[in-house]
């Protein structure tokens, strides 16, 4: 079958997300299926150029996967005329300057979140990208997870009636690193290196809430550093200067509802899991409720809602969990990162609409920034709309 190639520079492939989700599970998986089928019957074949700091690591990854193109010189990668897209999954603190270089080089941009360390940087990137006339996209993988797709389907189908409230619980125990190695990189726990659970997770909560329920208009947050000392990759102790727990209240304006929906989301790397999944959202509505995780979603309709009676003198008489119904898949769910890569590639080559762009990314950074300010100042903060003025 005829195929066209598209050159993609991948920066950050030695990292957790870059290697596993973006290289192996997305782009190599697209190659394994023979390329991405296009409208005209041809296939799009991603040609990959790996970029990073360590020649040894890049060569090792390239060899392992039969790839031949890699460089430790980002500018050299960006100067290649056969490259159309720049992808970034570096540590957050390195992202903005690399994205600026790629925009200057006239490449389309696809990037991990958060797009920048602060709002002004994130907005400037979006403006520069628009002014350069390039296409841009930001990873919003949670939207493509089966559990949240099913939740979105319930919302769009009108299952809930009037939506009353949302509660989210995200987290697990991240080992300190002394007697068992930590399962997340140490930069996540140092503020100066772009770490912190608010900067990491609020961008996710922003697009989940905005895309499924409505515009997020206010935030109130409390943040903590629960574990003050951790041990790094070399086994050395360091001070955890970033927040590792955040308790947020988000107010959402939803079309057709007269008062805002309140979403409370706990995010923590200092909790032990007594849940079915590492993140779960419970949505309660007048007509029914749902609990959605990464993969599964369960519902209870008003017609099957039991009538519990509060009586602490007696043991619970109902098995509450068994009273919920499983929402069926009804479709095949591919890896969420791959699904979004495919949409972005179609946006670039076939001009398909694509809304998860640097502006959406900037709104996520804005929520993180205002969430941190809310915690610092001990008050609720309203979220202004971002202005998409052209770059000066
Ligand atoms: N979408 C998601 O669900 C999700 C999940 C986790 C992380 N992320 C984002 O992905 C990005 C990478 O996170 P990760 O967990 O893969 O991190 P990681 O530490 O595993 O990987 C970081 C990558 O950046 C490179 N790098 C470049 N300059 C660096 C520097 N000065 N110091 C250290 N590393 C440097 C590393 O070599 C490596 O390739 C972050 O921005 C993070 O917010 C997204």
From TrEMBL:
Which segments constitute the GFO/IDH/MocA-like oxidoreductase domain? 149-290
Annotated InterPro entries: Gfo/Idh/MocA_oxidoreduct (IPR051317), GFO_IDH_MocA-like_dom (IPR055170), NAD(P)-bd_dom_sf (IPR036291)
Q: Which Pfam families match?
A: GFO_IDH_MocA_C3 (PF22725)
Keyword list, A-Z: Oxidoreductase
Q: Which GO terms describe its molecular function?
A: oxidoreductase activity
Give the Gene3D superfamilies listed for this entry. Answer: Dihydrodipicolinate Reductase, domain 2, NAD(P)-binding Rossmann-like Domain
Regarding protein family, the annotation reads: Belongs to the Gfo/Idh/MocA family.
Record protein name field? Putative dehydrogenase
Q: Which organism is it from?
A: Micromonospora pisi
